[in-house]
Structure formats: C-alpha cells, structure tokens
Design goal:
Elements (H helix, E strand, L loop, with lengths): L6 E6 L2 E6 L10 H16 L5 E6 L10 H4 L4 H7 L3 H4 L8 E5 L2 E3 L1 H7 L3 E5 L3 E3 L13 H9 L1 H10 L3 E2 H6 L5 E3 L4 H13 L3 H16 L2 H15 L3 H11 L10
Parallel strand pairs: 2-3, 3-4, 4-6, 5-7, 6-9
Antiparallel strand pairs: 1-2, 7-8
This protein binds acetoacetyl-coenzyme A.
The site of acetoacetyl-coenzyme A has 21 residues, from helix 2, strand 5 and helix 5.
Length: 258
Amino acid sequence: MNGFEFIETTLTGNTAVIELNRPRQLNSLNRKMVSEIITAMEKFDREEDIRAIVLTGRGRSFSAGADIDEMMGDDPISLELLNQFADWDRFSLIKKPIIGAVKGFVLGGGFELALCCDILIAASGTEFSFPEAGLGVMPGAGGTQRLTKLVGRTKALEWLWTGERISAETALKHGVINKIVAPELLMEETMKFANRLATQPPLSLRLIKDSVNKAVDYPLYEGMQYERKNFYLLFASQDQKEGMKAFVEKRKPDYTGK
Ligand code: CAA
C-alpha cells in the first residue's frame, strides 16, 4: 500500500506485513505513525484474501515507545482535544489474527503496541520494558490494563513501577510472548506461523478471537453463553459444511472463508 510516511506495507500470499519504518528513531511512535498503522490494519482486516496481519519494525528494534520529542510539550487540555488515544482504541476492533514479530527494544508505547497483537514471536535478545514511570508519567495506551490481565497484578506492578528490562525468556515464562527464535529467523518463523493460520477456516479464527477476547473481560458464565452463540453461528457457514464433509470423505478441506 502506498502513501504512508512512517510505515511500509507488503503482501506475501495471504499475509499482510506492516513494518514500522522510523529505524533511526528506533521506530518511536509519533501520532501520525500510530494512525497509519491502524489505518493499514483496518484496510487489511476488510480485504477478503488477507488471512493474517504481521506487525514488525525495521532496523534493530521493534519500537522504543512513544515519540518523547512530540509528547514533551503536551498538557491535559491538548491531550483531551487531540483525543490522544482514540487511534489506539481501534486496535481492539481488528478481527483477523495479528502476529507481532519483535526484536531489540520493545518499550513503553512499543510494548503497548506489541500487546495489541494476538501472537508475539520475539527474536532472542529482545528486551521489553515500561519505562514511563522513569519519565514522570505512566502508560496511557492500555499498558497497565493489558499487562495486568496477561501476567497478573503483582508482576504488572513490579514491572511498571521499576521500569526494569524484561528479557525474552522472562516474557515467555510469563505468557507475554508465544515463542523465541534466532534473530535471523524472525520473519521466516513468523511467516511460517501466518501461513499455518492461512490454511484454517477464517471464520473460525475470527470467532475464536472474538470469544477469547470476551473471556478476558466477561465472568465465566456470561463468557460461555457468548461462546455458544459464536459456535452456533459457525453452523451457518459453508466452511463448517466443507470441513465436516472433507473429514467424512477423508480428503483435505477447501475453505472459502464463507
Ligand atoms: N522518542 C523519541 N526519540 C527516541 C525514542 C523515543 N521514545 N527512543 C529513541 N529515540 C531516538 C534517540 O533520541 C536517538 O535519536 P538521535 O540519534 O537523534 O539522538 C535515536 O532514537 C537512537 O537512540 P539512542 O541513541 O538513545 O540509542 P541507544 O541504543 O543508545 O538507546 C534506548 C536505546 C535505550 C531505547 C534509548 O533510546 C531510550 O531509552 N529511549 C527512550 C525509551 C523510552 O523511554 N520509551 C518510552 C516512551 S514514553 C511512552 O511510550 C508513553 C506511552 O505509553 C504512550
């Protein structure tokens, strides 16, 4: 896709790749860049042939966080008038799988962006941190909420209060990331995972994501009622018929996404 200043987008098979492209600033996130990322993501989310979206960063780091130069002159009224985090809210509405391929520094807003992904694959040596408290602020794009839901209150407070660097191994241990790979294999392994998802029926993946997201917010009983409706809904799809027919006929299913 053309016309972006701070990101590059490419298509490989059924996978769209969005690459943060401000490597000299370690892909620190200015507002335009965040707007470009979510705009591209929403476009790919609507395109029928795209089955997964990969988010990665050019250069030595995924992202060193929000652009401090841009942010330092802000005041509460300018932030309110800008509706500073409105673009960030849109990440929660993406229905296709988002796979983050991260390396180097994943800091502050960069860590928050990584936590908007559904699956995270990290190069060995990747360091995660929320350094905001050390700047006299705190995360504002979901960091305190998403991290706490992921690792629990105690670890979240420790990491957010101290701003300590968390290794890829520690992140894996606490369920923040899915996998650690050699740096030179980061994109290859990520695309392999994306290709695996591309063979699955897209509507199943979509409603599984929807149901798992509800599990994070809903009490168990309400979550199970929600899951049930999605389960029923899939029986209206051609892919349910094809998947079960292919099983009975002992052949590979041919999914259309309908
Ligand atoms: N904002 C703006 N510029 C940044 C930046 C950021 N978050 N992070 C790095 N850069 C710039 C540096 O200023 C430097 O630019 P110049 O070459 O023009 O001086 C360039 O990127 C390369 O960085 P360094 O020379 O500092 O590289 P390093 O390897 O020595 O250090 C680093 C890397 C430890 C990540 C260091 O750059 C750093 O500490 N960056 C800031 C990290 C940070 O505090 N992020 C949180 C931001 S707040 C936030 O994200 C709030 C929120 O939730 C919305």
